[in-house]
Specification:
Number of strands: 18
Radius of gyration: 24 Å
Largest sheet: 7 strands, mixed
Structural class: alpha+beta
CATH topology of the largest domain: Nuclear Transport Factor 2, Chain: A
Distance between the termini: 26 Å
Strand order of the largest sheet: 13-12-17-16-15-14-18
Number of domains: 2
Shape: elongated
Helix content: 10-25%
């Protein structure tokens, strides 16, 4: 399998929206990033999908998330701690496990929440309330609420369990590639690149495994003292067996100071990871990078 630059452009264009592979919820984002809110009297309501059933959740950014026990009749009784804006209260409630909870294309798996009687809230606003969407689930779902525009705004969805496992496997492989660079091991570094690897920078493109390896060997491996490469990952997503990563990089020595940002595509083939492409944009002189995972 080969990834063309045309497909790369499609992947870049789709970074902000990856459809869930777990079914299509009835409420989909407007423009792929926003979901209109509903209301119960003047209270904001959003439709979540719990185990493939639409549920009405009241949004309360000052509380932790709760379920209405009448809407979720199963579960085991236990003591739970309920947090509001000014206190935390211990009470007996049923703990309910939801296999899949989703908002738009953002999905959480195996969510456990306390269920109590929310009938008074439903009666006060004059409508059905199946639960309360609090700050804890809003953060996990990667959702912000715009009350002025009355929408729930979706960021990049968090990785699913299988996606996170795939990304972790790729990270492990790429760590050895960074070590190969820092150890001046050109042969090992070459094995990291796909035969059709492309390195794109403002000064031009390098195409193919051999051309890229020779470039790094001639530019960095002959210097004294040694240069050191570090990558800090800011975002990662997986599409099938392809993982894209946004990163900040530094290449430093007493005589070499380079830094910038880039996007990398990696593909798994025959249980090995190969770098398909790296598109980099050097920064001027600021070598500071945002917090993230380093290779």
């Amino acid at each position: 399998m080969r990834i063309s630059l045309r497909l790369l452009a499609c992947v870049i264009a789709g970074l902000g929206y990856f459809p869930a592979a777990h079914g299509t919820p009835t409420q989909t984002p407007a423009g792929g990033t926003e979901i209109p809110l509903q209301h119960c009297d003047r209270l904001p309501i959003v439709i979540l999908r719990a185990d493939n059933v639409d549920k009405r959740f009241l949004i309360d950014t000052a509380a932790t998330s709760l379920l209405n026990e009448k809407s979720f009749p199963r579960g085991q009784s236990r003591t739970v701690r309920i947090q509001s804006w000014n206190e935390t209260t211990a009470l007996n409630a049923r703990e309910v496990s939801i296999g899949e909870l989703s908002l738009g294309n953002h999905i959480l798996l195996t969510v456990k929440l306390p269920a109590i009687d929310l009938g008074a809230i439903a009666k006060a606003c004059g409508g059905e309330v199946d639960g309360i969407l609090g700050v804890d689930l809003l953060e996990q779902l990667g959702v912000t609420i715009d009350l002025k525009r009355s929408v729930a705004r979706l960021g990049i969805p968090p990785p699913s369990t299988s996606e996170a496992s795939l990304i972790a496997d790729m990270d492990k492989a790429m760590h050895s590639c960074s070590e190969a660079f820092n150890n001046k091991d050109a042969d090992k570094l070459a094995s990291c690149f796909d035969p059709d690897f492309v390195l794109s920078t403002p000064s031009g493109e390098l195409r193919g495994r051999d051309e890229a390896t020779n470039h790094f060997r001639q530019k960095y491996f002959g210097t004294t003292p040694d240069v050191r490469l570090s990558l800090t990952i800011s975002e990662q997503r997986a599409v099938g067996d392809v993982v894209w990563s946004l990163y900040d990089y530094k290449i430093e020595s007493p005589s070499v100071h380079a830094a910038g940002r880039g996007m990398m595509l990696c593909r798994r083939s025959d249980n090995r990871w190969y770098i398909l492409s790296m598109h980099e944009s050097p920064t001027k002189s600021d070598l500071k990078t945002a917090g993230g995972r380093k290779w």
